[in-house]
Amino acid sequence: MFTLKGCTPTVEERARRLLKFELGYEAAGSTVTVATLFGRCHVDPGETAQHLMRIPPHDAVDHLADWIHSFQIDGEFCPEPKALATAALRHAGRAV
């Protein structure tokens, strides 16, 4: 896999938008975002989001869908991780 070093302002802005995307809510009322997902998966949220902005679009969807698929909110898995990953990346401004 090939990615460029450094980060353009466009990539940084899209990564910020991706991290703010809401995946759901916990019973306690707190919002679960992509940043929450990455943090709980023990990966650096900023670096991971930027990486997803630099790799091929279909790879980005697949990688994010894999994370969403393995993630639970209040003990429940997402029923359609690929659709949610696509929505999150589109929200961020990523062509998918």
Describe the structure.
57% of the residues lie in helices and 11% in strands. With 96 residues, the chain is mostly helical. Strand 3 and strand 4 form a beta hairpin. The two termini are 18 Å apart. The model has no long low-confidence stretch (mean pLDDT 91).
Write the layout of secondary structure elements.
Blueprint: H1 9-20, E1 22-25, E2 31-33, H2 34-40, H3 45-54, H4 57-70, E3 72-73, E4 76-77, H5 81-92
Antiparallel strand pairs: 1-2, 3-4
Helix pairs in contact: 1-3, 1-5, 3-4, 4-5
Helix count from the secondary structure assignment: 5
Widest sheet: strand ordering = 1-2
> How does the major sheet shape up?
2 strands, antiparallel
Q: Regarding quaternary structure, how should these chains be classified?
A: single chain
The amount of beta strand, in percent, is 5-15%
- The N- to C-terminal Cα distance equals 18 Å
Shape: globular
Query: Which structural class best describes the helix and strand composition?
Result: mainly alpha
**Percent range for helical residues?**
55-70%
Could you tell me the radius of gyration in angstroms? Answer: 13 Å
User: Order of helices and strands, N to C?
Assistant: HEEHHHEEH
